[in-house]
Amino acid sequence: MKLSIDKEIIEDFPDAKIGWLRARITNSSGSPYVSEMKRGLAASLNDIGISADTLTLHPDVRRWRETYSKMGVKPSKYRCSLEALLRRIFKGDMWSVSDVVDCYDCVSALNLLPMGAHDMTKLRGDMVLRYVREGEKFYPLGAGDSVVECAPPQIVYADGEKVCCWLWNYRDTRDACVDDATEEALFLVDCAFETEWRTIGEGLAALAKELEAIGCTVRASGVISAASPSAEIA
């Protein structure tokens, strides 16, 4: 399986990068380690100057809003996964999905980098970050039987048969999600611009460290960018 960034995305977003990590994961829940990570999130974010009132002012959040505007959607309605996560944290709306999902969400928030994950057995062929094709449909996770009619210039992750994540990192598909049966997952770390707080490499290292702390086994990882726009994942 190959992961790549389409040349049109590179032309329009020359600083775009994707950090990727493949790991064998655990299917546990209720880890005290992860619970402690979640409890300390708001305070850790406050320490770096981010609060409910200031989060949209931080360059790493603000520039994702600009990116979403370029995709033809309202960033106040469709928020990147990072902004949505930060808002939940400051509202005290703490999630509880599984140790793995909760863990990478914590790492995403602390590093101000959008992150996602897919079950590798549910992916078909190669995965690419590209502009959506006219008429493509997206089947969002956590939205019942609803279907999204995609339209250019929206950006998606797609494999050989489906849209895996809509609006760059807004929402994953239910057809490739990590669940209780997942044994091996592909984690993605997104960047559309040069970040201020943490680099893709730093976020990837933090993700690997925390996944291993909860019993996962990291098999391989790397970063693709304009200089090297594809990588063999498996």
TrEMBL record:
Chain ranges of the B3/B4 tRNA-binding domain: 62-216
GO molecular function: phenylalanine-tRNA ligase activity; RNA binding
Alphabetical list of InterPro entries matching this protein: B3/B4_tRNA-bd, Phe-tRNA_synthase-like_B3/B4
Pfam family, one: B3_4
The organism's place on the tree of life at top rank: Bacteria
Listed Gene3D superfamilies: Phenylalanyl-trna Synthetase, Chain B, domain 3
Record-given protein name: B3/B4 tRNA-binding domain-containing protein
Organism: Cloacibacillus porcorum
Record lineage: Bacteria, Thermotogati, Synergistota, Synergistia, Synergistales
